[in-house]
Amino acid sequence: MTPPDTRRPSDPSVADLKSAPKQLGLFQSHGRIRVATDGCGFTDVTGDAARFLATSGADTGLLTLFVRHTSASLTIQENADPDVLADLKDALASLAPSGAHYRHGCEGPDDMPAHIKTMLTCVSLAIPVEDGRMVLGTWQGVYLIEHRSKPHAREIALLFQGSFR
Question: In whole angstroms, what is the distance from residue 10 CA to residue 27 CA?
């Protein structure tokens, strides 16, 4: 009996890896979404992300969103019943309450709870794209979650990688 071939194929060279996206017709586009929040809560950014894809000419690939802050985050959640977002806001408040004793407090009593909420949620999302549209479920929307009590200006970096029309 002959043992199975356990040799590894030779690793591709760096040049091969750099030219692979061009050979496959894959490209990328990047942009930013600026969001003015009203304080603690959810801001729907689904339309902003969709406009980015439409203006970039995206066809099929992956959209990555990254919020550039430590006291705000991103989520994909239900977009039909606003009670869902209200209940989620309440749940996050109970997990990291303002007014609890925290060592870090130089930026206000809502800052450390905001950092905890960001750690419990996501600062980046990856969403498949087909025919230039995010592959979201019927009741799904993309939201920026503001964890601070006062309004803030937030920024989301966008990167689409894939094929273009």
Answer: 26
The 3-state DSSP class for residue 78 equals strand
Q: What is the pTM of this model?
A: 0.84
Number of CB atoms found within 10 A of residue 60's CB = 16
Q: How far is it, in rounded angstroms, from Cα 44 to Cα 42?
A: 7
H-helix or E-strand containing 114?
helix 111-120
Angle at the Cα of 57 (from 24 to 154), degrees rounded to 5? 110
Q: How far apart are CA 89 and CA 41, in angstroms?
A: 6
Q: What contacts 103, CB < 8 A, 6 or more positions away?
A: 112
| 128-154 confidence digits (pLDDT tens) | 999 999 999 999 999 999 999 999 999
* Cα(88)–Cα(121) distance, integer angstroms: 11
Query: In terms of CATH, what superfamily is 28-164?
Result: YjbQ-like (2.60.120.460)
Distance between start and end Cα atoms, the chain:
52
Per-residue confidence (pLDDT) for residue 26, from 0 to 100: 72
What is the share, in percent, of the chain residues with pLDDT greater than 70? 85
